[in-house]
Design a protein that fits this description.
Blueprint lengths: L1 H24 L15 E12 L6 E3 L2 E15 L2 E14 L4 E11 L4 E9 L5 E9 L4 H4 L3 E7 L5 E10 L4
Length: about 170
C-alpha cells in the first residue's frame, strides 16, 4: 500500500515537472503575443427591458443563495429588431461578492417571428456582464449567429432590469 502511494507521488511529481517545462516554453507564458491582433469591434444592437415579478425568498445553495423571479413582460429594441417579451424566468445565484445570472425569456417580433433568448453572466452585484444567445429565424437569423454581450442593470425597485447589448466582431487589420 505504501509503495502505491510512493508511485503516485513520483508520478505526480514527474507530471508536474513535464507540465512546468512545457508551459515555460509556451510563448504566452513569456508575455509574447501577436501585437497585430486588434480587440473586437463592439456595435450596440439591442436594448432589452424586463419587467419582473417580486423576488422569491432566497434559496440556500453551496455558493450562497439563489433568487428566482418570473419575467412578466418586456421589450427588445434595436436596429432591425423590435420585439415584445411575453414571459420567462430570471435565476440569479451568488453571494455578497459575485453573482451568476441566468435569464431566459421568449416572445415575438413586431411582425410575428417567435424568439427565445438566454443571457448567462457573471459579475459583482450591480455590475453584471452576460452573453446573449438568441433562437430566432427568418429575416432575424443574423442575430442567432451573432456573438452578443450585454451589461445588465437591475433597477432599485428590483422588478425592472435593463440590458444594453453589443455585437462583438473580430477586427480586421
Amino acid at each position: 500500500m505504501l509503495t502505491s502511494h510512493i508511485r503516485t507521488i513520483f508520478s505526480a511529481a514527474f507530471t508536474l515537472a513535464a507540465l512546468t517545462s512545457a508551459t515555460a516554453q509556451h510563448p504566452l507564458s513569456q508575455g509574447v503575443f501577436n501585437a497585430n491582433v486588434s480587440p473586437p469591434t463592439l456595435d450596440h444592437i439591442l436594448t432589452i427591458e424586463l419587467h419582473l415579478a417580486p423576488e422569491s425568498k432566497p434559496i440556500p445553495v453551496p455558493s450562497g443563495i439563489r433568487i428566482v423571479q418570473s419575467i412578466l413582460s418586456g421589450t427588445v429594441v434595436g436596429p432591425g429588431l423590435n420585439a415584445t417579451i411575453i414571459g420567462g424566468g430570471a435565476f440569479n445565484e451568488g453571494n455578497m461578492t459575485l453573482e451568476f445570472p441566468e435569464i431566459n425569456y421568449f416572445g415575438s417580433t413586431d411582425d410575428g417571428e417567435p424568439f427565445f433568448i438566454t443571457q448567462m453572466g457573471i459579475g459583482p452585484p450591480g455590475n453584471l456582464i452576460s452573453r446573449v444567445t438568441m433562437d430566432i429565424g427568418g429575416k432575424y437569423a443574423r442575430f442567432a449567429s451573432s456573438f452578443i454581450i450585454s451589461v445588465i442593470t437591475l433597477h432599485a425597485d428590483h422588478v425592472t432590469a435593463t440590458a444594453e447589448a453589443w455585437n462583438a466582431t473580430a477586427s480586421t487589420n
